[in-house]
Every structure is written in structure tokens, then in C-alpha cells.
Amino acid sequence: MLPASLDEAVEALAATPGAVPVAGATDLMEAVNAGRLRPAALIGLGRITELRGWRYEDGGTAVLGAGLTHARMDRPDFAALIPALADAARTAGPPQIRNVGTLGGNIATAAPAGDTLPVLTVLEATATLARAGGTREVPISHLLTGLDPLRPGELLTWVRVPLLHAPQVFLKATGRSGPARASASVALVLDPARRAVRCAVGAVAPVPLRPLEAEAWVAGCIDWDARGEEGAALIDPAAAAAFGEYVAGACIPDGALDGPEGAGALAARLRRTVSVLARRALGRALK
Amino acid sequence: MSSPTDISSPAELSPAGAEEAQGAEPFGLGGSALRNDALPKALGIYPYAADLWAEGLLWGAVLRSPHPHARIVAIDTTPALALPGVHAVVTAADLPLGPEGIPDGAPSGPIVADRPILASGVVRHHGEPVAAVAADHPDTARLAAASIRVEYELLEVVTDPEQSFNVPPLHPEGNLFRHLPLRTGDPEAVGEIIVEGLYQVGRQDPAPLGAEAGLAVPRPDGGVELHLSSTDPHGDRDRTAACLGLEPDRVRLVVTGVPGATTDREDLSFQVTLALLALRTGRPVKMTLTREESFHAHTSRHPALLRYRHHADAEGRLVKVEAQILLDGGAYADVSAEALAAAAAFSVGPYVCPNVFVDAWAVRTNNPPAGRMRGEGALQTCFAYESQLDQLAAQLGVDPLEIRRRNAMATGDPMPTGQAVTCPAPVAALLDAIADSPLPALPLDDPEADWLLPGGPGGAGDPAAVRRGIGYALGMVHMLGAEGEDEVSTATVRVSGDHATVICAAVDSGQGFATLARQIVQSVLGVSEVYIAPVDSDQSAAGPSARGRHTWVSGGAVERAALMVRHQLLQPIAANFGMSVELLTIADGKISSYDGVLGMPVSEALEGKELWATAQCRPHPTEPLDESGQGDAFVSIAFCAMRAVVDVDIELGAVRVVDVTVAQDVGRALNPRQIEDRIEAAVAQSIGLALLEDLRTEGGRILNPSLTGYRLPTALDTPDVRIAALLEERDVVATFGAKAVSAVPAVVAPAAVAAAVRAATGLPVGRLPILPEDATVG
Lengths: 287, 778
Ligand SMILES: Cc1cc2nc3c(=O)[nH]c(=O)nc-3n(C[C@H](O)[C@H](O)[C@H](O)COP(=O)(O)OP(=O)(O)OC[C@H]3O[C@@H](n4cnc5c(N)ncnc54)[C@H](O)[C@@H]3O)c2cc1C
Hints:
The structure holds 2 protein chains of 2 kinds. Chain A has 2 domains: 50-162, Uridine Diphospho-n-acetylenolpyruvylglucosamine Reductase, domain 3, CATH 3.30.465.10; 168-285, Enolase-like, domain 1 (2-Layer Sandwich), CATH 3.30.390. Chain A contains 13 helices and 10 strands. Chain A has helices spanning 6-15, 28-33, 70-73, 76-81, 83-90, 95-98, 103-109, 116-122, 140-145, 212-221, 237-251, 254-257, 261-286, and strands spanning 19-22, 41-44, 54-57, 61-65, 126-131, 134-139, 155-162, 168-173, 184-191, 196-202. In chain A, the strands form 3 sheets. A 5-stranded antiparallel β-sheet of chain A has the order 3-4-7-5-6. In chain A, helix 10 (212-221) packs antiparallel against helix 11 and helix 11 (237-251) crosses helix 13 (261-286). Chain A is globular, with a radius of gyration of 20 Å. Chain B is an alpha+beta fold. Chain B has 3 domains: 10-31 and 488-617, Aldehyde oxidase/xanthine dehydrogenase, molybdopterin binding domain (Aldehyde Oxidoreductase, domain 4, 2-Layer Sandwich), CATH 3.30.365; 50-155 and 219-288, Aldehyde Oxidoreductase, domain 3, CATH 3.90.1170; 304-482 and 624-774, Aldehyde Oxidoreductase, domain 4, CATH 3.30.365. Helices cover 24% and strands 25% of the residues of chain B. Chain B contains 16 helices and 29 strands. In chain B, strands 3-5-1-12-9-10-11 form a 7-stranded mixed β-sheet. A 6-stranded mixed β-sheet of chain B has the order 7-15-14-13-8-29. Chain B has a 4-stranded mixed β-sheet with strand order 16-24-25-28, with helices on both faces. In chain B, strand 21 and strand 22 form a beta hairpin. In chain B, helix 12 runs parallel beside helix 13 (553-576). Chain B is globular and about 75 Å long. The termini of chain B are far apart. Chains A and B meet through strand 8 and helix 13 of A and loops of B. Residues 20-28, 30, 45, 66, 92-93, 97, 100-102, 104-106, 108-109, 114-115, 155-156, 181 of chain A line the site of flavin-adenine dinucleotide.
């Protein structure tokens, strides 16, 4: 089925038990090919053009269509709007995948290494879920943690992202130069109005993690009023390094390090990677 | 071997020739002719085996063992047979019985017949085929296969090759595929400097992008026709027939669309199962493996554990090399014994050392079976001996290039096997070529340059944490079968009117043989239009596309056949002019006499003629290595030198290979572009082994049988490959004086990358692939 409007799509979803929505199919077909999924019917979202773009709302919010492709989010106009999301989209797989893979698919799949997820978490985005006869608004983090999951018959239509107009960074470690899933990723944004730093760590747990204490601590280390050379906000390098350690320690608890031989070493290594990413992310945001 | 003078220089195009060749197509040997399949493959219109179709075909599917080691207590196929659409279910019981009159799964193998087509009694590795189904829909076939009930009794799983010596036999043939001791010189010799190392190489998979596929069609005479992308049509035909209890002439193998193979293609179990299903059902049967199955089905590179001790004098000259080499052959023998011979014989590398004491073993485990892969055996030891030389250089405080120069082998020097290297061994010249080659600039000095940091575009790379390293490596590998293997190939060349046809069963597996055959005939006969006939097993045998043999053996056969045709063509002309054939030459599409009186276009001489000849080529024989690893085991050897430049993010351990510069001993460059392509391909594959590729197992189970889990290099992981030199010192015994070019760069690249990472990080780097944790400092 290829509905041409949102209404048609939610109607079709309600009318066809077992029907599954499909956007770029980059996750869906992998599951079908591997025999993990055998949908009774498919509802293609590709013709719902309104979901493929974005708009502004109340001046301070961007409303992103679930059908935005990674390639589209990587373009300069979008990158000027939400740089961290553009950074994440730029690294979300090889070009063939990014040309068709969508924001909505990335969220609905909710893979631990989904690249947009830590960014949406740190931006405190919300999702609009539509079903026949109504919509509801859910924070992305609730959606991902399963606190308030996507229900059968529901379609993810919009993602609301509060605009910050301040530096934001997404960094992803993969261990290689070619396209790959993240072994760890860090999204970090500055919120100068609230004198806050927000940070989310991806790929190290089933959902992105927010090291809230580390965020609060480091916000206190930044001299928000001082402007260094080229207007950089200032932080002591030692504090930036300590922030990295703090974030890593919060996301990979000490208990993980005492795991069985291989697992312990893996956790130690992951902790180091997260620490480096968090430190670098902060450094770039404050540059 | 006689080589007529008219083909020793690349033929220039005459105006007449140019017309025939339609423009400036390169013509003949030495030119850079383009592959015929290049365009169709790039356009996606090249027909692969997976595209085959036959009216009324059924689909095959295989049930594989989920366990690495288990006894099969019972197999119940009734649930599968009960499914509508299922036409046949086969198990080991459907194959010819073993010598004792009981089913044994019709074991087969290139050296030892130890690998059953379908497991009988015992499964010895994860993914071993147990049963197969033919049904009218691929999904039905897979569902039916999955519904077969197999009762397993789990057995102890042996995954550590060092344990293999001390456990009860995993197979009636025992656990030791081969032990090769190599001893030469004085065991008591000691050097002033001693360096030791332990090296590990992981399991690289050929991971062919085209997964296994084929079609079997039953024949009215009770035989079967197999359409496969085989790289050894006659070997495959013979082994398939033997496993089915048929005469070889009842099996016909038609080679279709090879997707590019750096090793064997469809394994024997695939072929025989497919044929068996077709024979059982009387219908054509098609089978294509999923990506996951493909990882389970084909053999991978031998994981290796190597312990080395190098003794050197105060100047760094090698005094003694001691080594213990252990190859994990996995569950079945395949070509482990062959790989081991290369590992032991080349254990010192292209260096002179008077005293060598090596023990090499290839053993059976319950890991995935290992087999042929570019430079098998030689690659693993190259990483170890080159790492040792770097250690030696570091201890002596001399340059890595200098330590290699001091020990470099030259033509005439003996190898540790006692065989003198009689072919050109321009090792020192290769080193000079890479040493003199300019280094890539550091982008730090040029802010305009787009510096692709380790971690890739949009990655987390930080220039402040990036260190650059430069590493060097030398290596060697033999070409053609070794240790007494009978190497032979046959070819027919036919000329009718203005075009020629080559009939030779040498499969172009991507190595470019078809292009080369075309060039040979162009050079010998002056005919520009040369067709290469499709390959099937009704033709005379040419042997497998492996070990860099076709240029020499099949190229030699094509050349001889073409020369015979040339004689037939020239003889009547010579007789007419009352001169001998030797006084006529063919060049630039023209037949000329020594005195210039005759100048006849080849096309005119050939008008209305049908000429053909068949010829064989069989290089000089070799002998097996004896009980101390001594003997003239190899026909010829190719050498290569490489310099790798890497950038390492030392905090995250991400490595990017920036540049690889290659100097290679090619004997003679028959098609320079094709050689460069082969070198690039080999470097790309070996960078995969050095940094990314590892088919990981846990308790014998494959953990990452997918292209997401098994990381192949992409264009972003692959560096600029620069050719510093293709050294053309002709190997007088080889066809055209040319050496095989594909394997030796694959052998050397991992060692060069490891050396560069070592230089960048100061870390020891003792295992491949080099993971981020092996390249993280502090
Ligand atoms: C080779 C390859 C590399 C990849 N690399 C990366 C990577 O580096 N980083 C990364 O994050 N991801 C990666 N991916 C995963 C994938 O491309 C992304 O997750 C992508 O965003 C999925 O989007 P899609 O439109 O293709 O989803 P689809 O496959 O169409 O859908 C995925 C799931 O989401 C559901 N769905 C889709 N749209 C909606 C909607 N509007 N409402 C409700 N449910 C919906 C579908 O029903 C399905 O269950 C890779 C995939 C491949 C094949």
C-alpha cells in the first residue's frame, strides 16, 4: 500500500492488522532478509511528501518530518539549523543508505547504535505519534526507553526539536575510516541561555544515556562570560579531561569493569573511548 | 621454452591494424588492454550464476549444523517431506555408501578425502551441511530444511589449535594435517643479538560479494549438468562425479559468470548436493546461498600462531632463525598441507640465513575449515618475519630499510629448503625503488588540503592526537603448484578468416586470463579480433585458477597453439617465396620477409582459411620437501617490497592507511594496467586483513556471519596505491618471462601496515587484524 497522505496512512494502518509501515526499508529489509520479520502487509510512507520536509513553529522549534532522509539532513541549510543532527546523519552509513534511510526509521528501529538518537535525546526532542482519530506527543527519551513506546497502529509523524542557536557537536567512534556503526558516540550541546551543558552517550547501552551530574558539574567549570581568543568560552583543559572521565564513569559503571575477563577489558576500553569523545566534544563546542 | 622474437616487443598499431581494432585499442602483449567484462560488470548487466533460470526449476536449501561438534543420533526428515511443494530431501544416506557398506557422507577433499558432502554420524564445525531439500519455492525449501529434526549429542569442542595435539582424534584421519620440520645448518649457532616474538593472525574470509549460486540440470543419460562459477571445472567435475558414484563423463560442468574469486568458489558440498537434488527429482534445481550461509560454506584463511627467535651478528646479519608455526586448519584438511609448505619454506623471508630450524604444524580443530586464499601460508609468516626484522632494527638502532638491505636475498642464494633461487630475485632493487619514492605530504603543513583523519569523514578524529608512521616490508611467494604437483594446461587456437578463437578451460576468475589470452594471440598471429570461448568441462583440462598459474601454464599453452597456427599460416607463403618460415615475421598486422620483399596483411593471408592447433604447456617438475624440509619444491618465486604510511589516532586507536607504495618483481609486464589492478586489489584485501577483517568465533560458533559484522574495507579504508616500480627482470623459464602478480602484494601488505602502525605508536603490534585497542597509546 502506498498512501498519499497521512490520514490515508493511519487509516490503512488501522484497517490492516499486522501491517507494518516502511520508509527507506534499510532496516526493515535487513530484518526480512534475515528471516526475523515477515510482515503481513507493508504500508509505504514514501509518497507522503509532507513528512519529507520540515517547518518552524513558534520561532523556537523545528518540526521535522519523519520521512527526512539522512542525506537531506546533511545538507547545509539543515546543518545550519541543527548541526549535531546533520553530523549524525552524515555518518549514518554509506551514501546509498543515507539517500533513503529516514529519521523516523532510525527512531522506530531504536538500535543502540542509531546515530540520531543521542542527538535527539540531548536536544530533548519530542515525537508526534499519529493513529486513526488522534495524535499524542511523547518525549523521544520516553519512546526509546520503552516508558511510553510506539503502539500498534501508530505512526511517527513529526519530531519537535527546540532550537538552541549555540554550538552543538556529535562525535562517533567506529575504529575505521569507512562507514560503520558507532562503537560509542557522544552528542553535546551548549545552552548558554540556561548556562547549561547537555550530553548524551550513544551505542554503549540499549538507549542513549544522559550523565546528568557530569553535565551539571562541567557547566560550573565553564567561564560563561569570559571570551577567549576568537570568542571561545573558556575551560581549564584539566576540567575538560575530568569531564570526559566523569561522563565515561557514569555511562560505564565500575561494576562492568569487573566482568569476566573479556567483558571487563571491553568495558575498560569503551570507557576510555567515551572519555576521549566527551572531552573532544566539549572542546569543539567551546572552541 | 622458445619465444619468437616478434612478440618480445609490444606491437605498435599499423594503420590497417588500427582500422580492424576500431581505434586505439591496445593490441598485443605489453599493452594495457581492457577486460571484456569490465563494462558489463560496472553497468550491472553481467549475468552471474545467481541469474540463471531453467523452465520448471526447483529450489534447493541446506540444513546446517548449529553445533561445532556433535554426534548425530537421529535425523527425521518426515516433517520436511510432509510439506506441500517439497520434492526431495537428502541426507548422507542418499550418497554412495562408504567402503564398509555404510553411509559415510562421500568424503572428498583436494589432498585428503576427509570432508563429507553431508555430515554422516558427526558434525565437526558450525554450519556443516547435514541435509538438503528441493522444493518448488525457495521459501518452502528453507522452511522444509528448518523443519528437519536432528537429534544431536553434543561433544567436546576443540577450538584452540594448541590443544588439538592433546585431545582424542576429532576425525578418523587424526588431528594432524601435517608436521613439517625444516632444518638446515648448525643448531648450536648463536648470534650476538637475539630477538623473540609471538605473532597471531586472525581468520580472514574471502567474503565474495557474489554469494554461492548454481543450477543443476539432470541429463537424459542419467548424468547431470552443473552451471557454476567454478574456478576449477575439471577438478570439480571429477570430484562431483566421484562423490555421486558416476563416471566423470556423466557430469558436465559449465562455468558461468564468476563474480570474481580470490580463492575457490562454490565448495564441493554445494555442488554435489545440488547435483544430487537434480538427479533425485529429475528437475533442474537452483540454489543460492544467503550471506550468512556463504560465510559458513566456504573456507577462510588459516589463523596462525607463530613463535620466532632471530639471531643476528653485531651488524644485524642473520645468523639463525628458529620458529614454531601453527596453522589452524579447522575441521577438514582442504589444502592445509600445501599452505603449511609455503609457511615453512618462506619462514625466513627473502633473506639469507645459514641456520634455520623451524617446526610447522597444521592441525584439525572444530573451527571453520581453512583453505586457499591468496598467498596462503606465506602471508602469515611474512607478518612474523618482517615484525622480527623491525625488532632487530630497533635493537641495533639501524634503519628498517638498512637491516633488510644487509640480509636481502639475491639470485642464486639458497632458501632454507636448500633450493637455490634460480629465478631473478631483485630484492635489493625493489627496496631501493620504494626507498626512493617520494612520501605523501603531511596535510598539517597544508591547511588547504582536506585531511581525511582516521575515523573517516565526520568522524571523531582530532589532529592533535594523530601520529603518522611509516613501515616497510618485503615478502615472497611461489607460483604454480609445489612439491611435485603435476602442472599442465591445454589450449586450442582456431583462426577462421579475420578472427581467432581461444578454447582453453582456464577460468578467468577476475585475474584477467581472458584478456591475456587475447593479447597473446594478437601478438603471435597479428589478428586483432580474438574471442575467448566460454569454459566447460568438455574442453581439455587447464587446472584450477589458483597459485598464480594460468599466466604461465595456460598462457604458455595458448602461445604454443598460436605458434603452431602461425607456422601453418606462414609455411605455404614461405614455400611460395622459396624461403624458410623462420625468415618471415608477423608484426603490425602484416607478414613481412627478412628482405622486405614480402609485405602482406595478415587478413589477406588468412582470407577463407580455417586453421587450428592444440598445444600443452607443462613447466619443469618439482619435488616434495623431505623430512627435514629440504628439496626443490617450487617452480619459481615472486618478490615484492612495500612501504605503508598510516595515520593513527592514538587515543581512539583508529588507523587510516594513507598511502601504500609498491615495487614488484613481475618478470615482464604483459598488461601493465591489469598488473596495477591486481596489486590494488591485493592491497585492498590485505588492508582488510590488517585492520578490519576477522571471522570471529566463540566456542567454534561463528559470531559475525554478515557484512555488517564482518567488516570489509571500503574505498575510504583503502589508500592510494602507488607503483614505484614493476621490475622486469625476465624469468627465463617462465612463459614470456612473466611472474604471477596477484598473490605477492597480498602477502606483503599486512606486514607493511603493521610496521607503520608500530612506527606511529611505538607499540609492539603482534596480532592481525590490528584492533583499536592494539593501536591506543597509554
Ligand atoms: C549498510 C547499512 C548501514 C547502516 N549504517 C547505519 C549507521 O551508521 N547509523 C545508523 O544510525 N543507522 C545505520 N543503518 C540503519 C538504517 O539505515 C537507519 O536506522 C535508517 O535511519 C532507517 O530508516 P529507514 O527509513 O530505512 O527505516 P525502515 O527500514 O523503512 O524502517 C525501520 C523500522 O521503522 C519502522 N518505521 C519507519 N518509519 C516509521 C514511521 N514513520 N512510523 C512508525 N514506524 C516507522 C518500520 O516499520 C520498521 O520497523 C544502516 C543500515 C544499513 C543497511
